[in-house]
Amino acid sequence: MVDPISDMLTRIRNAQAVGHSTIDFPFSKIKFSLAEILAEEGLIKKISKKGRGIKRKIEIELLYEDKKNTIPKINQLKRISKPGKREYIKAKDIHPVLAGRGINIISTPKGLMTGKEAKKKELGGEILCEIW
Question: Suppose 23 and one of 15, 78, 79, 103 were both cysteines; which one would form an S-S bond, judging by CB atoms 3.0 to 4.6 Å apart?
Fold first, then answer.
């Protein structure tokens, strides 16, 4: 696997397309931080770590607008910075996604955070993805 973040976003996108309630994928600190941000923003229900050692996994409980799991809370997941072409942004250049209805996730020297937090703390960094 070349890009684990892209793999995580694709797994979420595919699981929501078929109405799964939970998904799991291999553990890494950056993916867990990304999942924590999604939970804080109310885009997923719950995250948890499963297993030990090399078999550690992250389990995400997805959130839907309806009870039949047909309308996902996350409409779009878009990877911005890729391993072949990194995208960096300065704090002054961070703008809201879809007029504030979405979030962008930025990897800063202080860790992963939303674009709103990074702008408030005046931190720039690598823009990982946009979610709305």
Answer: 15
d(CA 36, CA 42): 10
In DSSP notation, 101-123 reads TBEEEEEETTEEEEHHHHHHTT-
CATH architecture of structural domain 4-62: 2-Layer Sandwich (3.30)
pTM: 0.93
Task: Grade residue 69 by pLDDT with cuts at 50, 70 and 90.
Answer: confident
CATH topology of domain 77-131: Dna Ligase; domain 1 (3.30.1490)
Confidence band, pLDDT 50/70/90 cuts, at residue 71: very high
Nearest Cα to 4, choosing from 42, 64, 58?
58
pLDDT score, position 115: 98
Measured in degrees and rounded to the nearest 5, phi and psi for residue 35 equal -65, -35
- Decide if pLDDT at 1 tops 80: no
Tell how far CA 27 is from the center of its chain.
Answer: 14
